[in-house]
Amino acid sequence: MALKTLDNALEILRYFTYEHPAWGVRELAKELNISHSIIYRVLATFEDHGFLVQNEDTKKYELGIKFWEYGLIVRSKLRISDMIYPTMEKLANETGESVFLTWLDELEGICVDIAESSQRVKFAVSIGSRTPLYAGASNKIIMAYVPEKDQLAIIEKGLQEFAGYTIVDPQKLLKNLEEIRLQGWCYSLGEYSDAVVGVALPLFTRKRKITGSITVAGPEYRFPESKVREVLTILEIRTSEIQAYLDTIL
Q1: Do residues 213 and 95 both lie within one domain?
Q2: I want to staple 159 with a disulfide (CB 3.0 to 4.6 A). Which of 33, 77, 168, 222 is the partner?
Q3: Per-residue H/E/C for 47-101
Q4: What is the pLDDT of residues 139-192, one digit of tens each?
Q5: Same structural domain for residues 215 and 92?
Q6: CB–CB of 179/123 below 8 Å?
Q7: Beta partners for residue 110, in sequence order
């Protein structure tokens, strides 16, 4: 397969997201402005290899079992279940709020794991969901540490208002990112979801390249600004434990 053809085929796969997990041939062709015959051949090839399956009822294509297998390989490599999640669970119990592990994937954040709060009312995000790096503590702490050219590339794509306090002014966002990087942690209120507070710390590779974040998040009425310093102190302790582990594998 020519590199250009492979590149186009992989670009098509990027459209299968948590928010839009199934696509019809003509629907995807219109979205990409590519001939539906080309889209069909690509999708059919992925189906032959188990990367996609066609729903018998809707005739739309969905991600196949192969991606689940590869996801397990990555999860096993990071040893999330037995090395990272227990620390996240401790953090959730200590703070009374949900804890999120977010990973940097190109120029987006992807929720890799969640230790849910025991509270009846909680901030819910689904594992596997992708979110832009400019909205919310879990993402902005990552964006603060990516190279400036990547920050500008994200801004160039456009800043969408997700909630009442999403920063959509490029200059204000860049200034905010600089402040976050200087202080080493991020606080957000109502940026991705209204009335939701998040406090996040970055995670790095051994070479100090940003790779993800750990975030404590909950509803504003239960997580007032006066509680942030207390939560941050606990978050710093648990994040240092996770970082120490990541330093041995990344």
Answers
A1: yes
A2: 168
A3: HHCCCEEECCCCCCEEECHHHHHHHHHHHHHHCHHHHHHHHHHHHHHHHCCEEEE
A4: 999 999 999 999 999 999 999 999 999 999 999 999 999 999 999 999 999 999
A5: yes
A6: no
A7: 103, 130
Instruction: State how far the alpha carbon of 89 is from the alpha carbons of 79, 114, 196, in Å.
Output: 15, 9, 20
Domain count, the chain: 2
- As beta bridge partners, residue 130 has 110
Task: Note the pLDDT tens digit of each residue in 126-147.
Answer: 888 889 999 999 999 999 999 9
Report pLDDT digits (tens) over 78-124. 777 688 999 999 999 999 999 999 999 889 999 989 999 887 666 66
Residues 212 and 140 both lie in one domain:
yes
Domain that holds residue 169: 79-246
Give the C-alpha distances (Å, rounded to integers) separating 77 from 33, 135, 230, 246: 38, 29, 33, 11
